[in-house]
């Protein structure tokens, strides 16, 4: 698969059907963020919520407590549905089902080719139901429909087809030893994998974790984010239609301090994978260590530098930097949230970046042409506005935006700050919102030092026409991914993960398989071998 830019829109063959059905309402008009009027009445999503219970041992069941929690429409703050609220008892039930499926069930015992075929059938079913899945993701999360349909659902499908291809290519080695021994290594499934995913890319994070775990022959208990539980339940039902045995994939919806903590500290979970904030990652790692010392993969926060060098084409750099920050309402762990611009092109870049942000189309994510929807919930909304106020109070120049958009829902104006200093909170903390901080630098050594002066190390972007500059920066920047003259390229085969406090391990690509495998050495004594 050619590298997929996350900013490419409507590249799929199946998205246009629903988009055509939305054309009837697209004529209502689209507001840029400077419009003072309140947003219009939200479009009614063309999908029905069917699955709101926990998925345990192949069946949708109520929580043991009978409790539910609301999942809300970020466009309005109103109820979409009440979802079963999993707790410790439900996690125990799900882990028991996963353990039995691993120890006694057919999944790890069927041929890898058979597992591959189930993954491929699942990908085909997702493709057939892409319109409904996209609509659920947009409704629950607030991301633009065109983004979800053109970028995320196709990549979700590609990821599962990619891991289906790996299922029958996992093998160990034959090793030459000093002596009369036959030595081989076995790559064995690790067992029951606990997985906790975030709300910003619910389906993609599902694919990043479920795909490699299943390809390796493991069973899973996955906890969804409480803000966005709906799409994972829908696609997991399709997995069982594809032939996945009961108990192999279990979905628990619930809150972090209850369901998440129970999963992280469970003594019968063999492996844990978590994507979320660095602060929560520390808690998860501690719970895993205090229980059965289970290995943990962490994909955590970031404060990625986007470096615009002196020789850059400013127009192209402005557009790339804009997408690097504002994509998905700025709710990306790897967002290019520190835009470092060389002093010789700083003024030109700033004026054009401000103009581009001013032109950004904000509105109902179901409406055609909208680039930015609402933030995911009220907590995130208030957090972002607090950081904007901090930037103003600390002396940064608010060039555009900075306020709520409309009168309801969690919309925020695309915001640009100039004259940002490295010690300001907006330059140090992960804001996770549509706030671009533009900083000035003089030379390469300086920008390397400043870019690396952070607790994070998830990603970085470099925009230059000079190959030597690109090579120097790509090797000097302490980050798990460095994009040169591009950003947010998330191909299924490209590994992703962080340095420092941005996490442990890698997701996607061949590197992710090692997260879900144990390596066993088998040594057999040879009697009178013909050769060694």
From TrEMBL:
UniProt GO cellular component terms: mitochondrion
GO biological process, one term: carboxylic acid metabolic process
Active site (catalytic residues): 299
GO MF term list: aldehyde dehydrogenase (NAD+) activity
Pfam family, one: Aldedh
SUPFAM superfamilies in the cross-refs: ALDH-like
Swiss-Prot/TrEMBL keywords: NAD, Oxidoreductase
Aldehyde dehydrogenase domain ranges (all copies): 60-522
UniProt record similarity statement: Belongs to the aldehyde dehydrogenase family.
Name of protein: Aldehyde dehydrogenase domain-containing protein
Source species of the chain: Lactuca saligna
């Amino acid at each position: 698969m050619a590298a997929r830019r996350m900013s490419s829109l409507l590249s799929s063959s199946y998205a246009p059907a629903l988009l055509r059905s939305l054309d009837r309402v697209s004529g209502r008009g689209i507001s840029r963020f400077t419009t003072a009027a309140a947003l219009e009445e939200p479009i009614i999503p063309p999908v029905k919520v069917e699955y709101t219970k926990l998925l345990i041992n192949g069946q949708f069941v109520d929580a043991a407590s009978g409790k539910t929690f609301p999942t809300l429409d970020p466009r309005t703050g109103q109820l979409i549905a009440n979802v079963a609220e999993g707790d410790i008892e439900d996690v125990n039930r799900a882990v028991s089902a996963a353990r039995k499926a691993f120890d006694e069930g057919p999944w790890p015992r069927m041929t890898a080719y058979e597992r591959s075929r189930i993954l491929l059938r699942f990908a085909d079913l997702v493709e057939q139901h892409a319109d409904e899945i996209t609509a659920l993701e947009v409704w629950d999360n607030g991301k633009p429909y065109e983004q979800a349909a053109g970028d995320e659902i196709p990549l979700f499908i590609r990821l599962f087809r990619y891991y289906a291809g790996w299922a029958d290519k996992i093998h160990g080695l034959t090793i030459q030893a000093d002596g009369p021994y036959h030595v081989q290594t076995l790559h064995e499934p690790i067992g029951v994998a606990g997985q906790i995913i975030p709300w910003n890319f619910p389906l993609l994070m599902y694919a990043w974790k479920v795909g490699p775990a299943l390809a390796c022959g493991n069973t899973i208990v996955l906890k969804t984010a409480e803000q966005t539980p709906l799409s994972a339940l829908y696609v997991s039902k399709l997995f069982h239609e594809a032939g996945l045995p009961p108990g192999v994939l279990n979905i628990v919806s619930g809150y972090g301090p209850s369901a998440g903590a129970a999963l992280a500290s469970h003594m019968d979970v063999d492996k844990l994978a978590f994507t979320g904030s660095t602060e929560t990652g520390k808690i998860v790692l501690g719970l895993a260590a205090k229980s059965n010392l289970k290995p943990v993969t962490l994909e955590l926060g970031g404060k990625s530098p986007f470096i615009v060098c002196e020789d850059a084409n400013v127009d192209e750099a402005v557009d790339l930097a804009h997408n690097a920050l504002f994509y998905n309402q700025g709710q990306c762990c790897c967002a290019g949230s520190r835009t470092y611009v060389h002093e010789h092109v700083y003024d030109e870049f700033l004026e054009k970046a401000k103009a581009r942000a001013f032109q950004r189309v904000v509105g109902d994510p179901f409406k055609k042409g909208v680039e930015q929807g609402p933030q995911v919930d009220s907590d995130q909304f208030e957090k972002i506005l607090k950081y904007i106020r901090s930037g103003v109070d600390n002396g940064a120049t608010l060039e555009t935006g900075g306020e709520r958009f409309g009168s309801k829902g969690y919309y925020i104006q695309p915001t640009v700050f100039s004259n940002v200093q490295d010690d300001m909170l907006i330059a140090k903390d992960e804001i996770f919102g549509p706030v671009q901080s533009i900083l000035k630098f003089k030379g390469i050594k300086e920008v390397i030092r400043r870019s690396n002066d952070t607790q994070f190390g998830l990603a970085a972007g470099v925009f230059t026409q000079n190959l030597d500059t690109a090579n120097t920066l790509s090797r000097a920047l302490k980050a798990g991914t460095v994009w040169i003259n591009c950003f947010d390229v998330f191909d299924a085969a490209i590994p992703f993960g962080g340095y420092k406090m941005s996490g442990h391990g890698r997701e996607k690509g061949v590197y992710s398989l090692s997260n879900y495998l144990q390596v066993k050495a088998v040594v057999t004594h040879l009697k009178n071998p013909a050769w060694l």
